[in-house]
TrEMBL record:
Keywords: Oxidoreductase. Residues 28-483 form the Aldehyde dehydrogenase domain. Coiled coil: none annotated. It comes from Pseudidiomarina maritima. It comes from the Bacteria. GO terms for biological process: gamma-aminobutyric acid catabolic process. PANTHER family: SUCCINATE-SEMIALDEHYDE DEHYDROGENASE, MITOCHONDRIAL (PTHR43353). The active site is at 259. Pfam families: Aldedh (PF00171). Belongs to the aldehyde dehydrogenase family. This is Succinate-semialdehyde dehydrogenase/glutarate-semialdehyde dehydrogenase.
Length: 489
């Protein structure tokens, strides 16, 4: 940490025990949380198991009737107090996140604001959730629809956004009158526990939000997907794990929201503003060191502008600064762990062996530490290479070329995934055509940053089910009930 004061502010939000029914539960078994920039141990965290998970579900179930009985305004007021507490503690939360996750403190502070924005948004949506009065079917009957919270919900969240991936599941659940059990990631549980501390301080009732940190993901996931009291599971993570959880949840027909892997195309057409395309690609690709589900994975550049675009891109990439998260003015920090480095290295080796050309980077920055990877640009990539089929999840731009619009669209859609997509173009007719043909849940046109609480976040095909954020994000936590009243004279 930069100085003694900031270290002190971080400590005040450092919780290392599980949070169940409003209590901090110390457990004998612990697991270590490391700082990826230094390898230092940040904390020994309580290692929740199946038994603790069941206890958390029971607490959520017990808290449900009184939470559901509150008016939407009462729930909204508590959510807004939680939102304010996040903003008031933005710096401490950002330092804690940077320490456990690696992203620069300034970027982490941006995530705290982004994460908090979901809480404010869904506080508003709580009071704007409407039913329907249905047309009269016969003179003696009336019918209407009401929306009700689904009940106890479970969330399993990833390490790349330790704050926002939690708030955008918890906020709509709480707004809808549901209670929740969260299993945060083993690599970054401290941000989740800090959020729970703030929730408890502002008066969110015991049992409404429960956090079970754990190194035993399979065991905890099994309980969350099989427990009869859990009515809904929201998961963000890998496609393979998502498929397994969906199978497990099918046994008791739970509702699921899944935000899974992506393989986002970023298409640069020959009519694009190339300077804009470069800045938007950099914003999209190097955020969080490339460790985002909506990161540009396949950069498709039209032949006619390939040399010019590549030159501008290399120039821009050479300006990027890499360093530990607590250092000012850096663009990105370390990757999360050695496995992440190994994966990037393997994809690069595979691509260069198959004929791709390394234009810049491609190596670990040993002077900084084992998990810092240089900004990398690779050209001559083909759709057959593994780097085009798997999520890179690192600071690597892999460039493929294409000839005409139809080929660009065909290449972009040639994947089982469909989370985000991006393209740069100027001709408005092309913008309309391409926007309608790309298979993805979210699309950035001349824009590399597309996440916002107002937007419906989620994917098509094997990238998932359901949406987060927007008014659709609240509906994911509600059941629709039709009521018919007869005997009217």
């Amino acid at each position: 940490m930069a100085n003694h004061n900031s270290h002190h502010s971080m400590r005040s939000l450092l919780q290392t025990n599980a949070y169940v029914d409003g209590h901090w539960i110390p457990l004998e078994q612990r697991f270590q949380v490391l700082n990826p920039a230094t390898g230092a141990v940040l904390a020994d965290v309580a290692d929740g198991d199946a038994t603790l998970t069941e206890r958390a579900i029971d607490a959520a179930h017990k808290a449900l009737p009184s939470w559901r009985a509150k008016t939407p305004k009462q729930r909204a007021e508590l959510l807004l107090r939680w939102y304010q507490a996040m903003l008031d503690n933005k710096q401490a939360l950002a330092e804690l996140m940077s320490a456990e996750q690696g992203k620069p403190i300034a970027e982490a502070a941006g995530e705290i604001e982004y994460g908090a924005s979901f809480v404010a948004w869904f506080a508003g949506e709580a009071e704007r959730s409407y039913g329907d009065v249905l047309p009269t079917q016969s003179s003696g009957q009336r019918a209407w629809i009401i929306k009700q919270g689904v009940g106890v919900c479970a969330a399993i969240t990833p390490w790349n956004f330790p704050n926002a991936m939690i708030t955008r599941k918890v906020a709509p659940a709480l707004a809808a009158g549901c209670t929740m059990v969260v299993k945060p990631p083993q690599l970054t549980p401290l941000s989740a526990l800090a959020l729970a501390q703030l929730a408890s301080e502002v008066g969110i009732p015991d049992g409404v939000l429960n956090i079970v940190p754990s190194s035993q993901a399979k065991e905890v996931g099994q309980v969350l997907t099989s427990h009869p009291l859990v009515r809904k599971l929201s998961f963000t993570g890998s496609t393979n794990v998502g498929k397994l959880l969906m199978q497990q949840a099918a046994e008791s027909v739970k509702k699921v929201s899944l935000e899974l892997g992506g393989n986002a195309p970023f298409i640069v057409f020959d009519d694009a503003d190339l300077d804009l395309a470069v800045t938007q690609l950099l914003a999209c690709k190097f955020r969080n060191a490339g460790q985002t589900c909506i990161s540009a994975n396949r950069v498709l550049v039209q032949d006619a502008v390939l040399p010019k675009f590549t030159e501008k891109l290399q120039q821009a990439v050479s300006q990027l600064k890499v360093g530990p998260g607590d250092q000012a003015d850096i663009d990105y920090g370390p990757l999360i762990n050695q496995a992440a480095i190994d994966k990037v290295q393997k994809l690069l080796n595979d691509a260069t062996a198959a004929g791709a050309k390394l234009l810049t980077g491609g190596k670990v920055l040993d002077n900084l530490g084992p998990l810092f990877f240089a900004p990398t640009v690779l050209s001559g990539v083909t759709s057959m290479m593994a780097i085009s089929q798997e999520e890179i999840f690192g600071p690597v731009i892999a460039i493929q070329s294409f000839t005409d619009e139809n080929e660009g669209i065909r290449l972009a859609n040639d994947t089982p995934f469909g989370l985000a997509g991006y393209f740069c173009a100027s001709d408005y007719a092309r913008i309309i055509r391409v926007s309608e043909q790309l298979e993805c849940g979210m699309l950035g046109v001349n824009a590399g940053a597309i996440s916002h609480a107002y937007n419906a976040f989620g994917g098509v095909k094997e990238s998932g089910i359901g949406r987060e954020g927007s008014r659709y994000g609240l509906a994911e936590y509600q059941e629709t009930k039709t009521i018919t009243l007869g005997g009217i004279k």
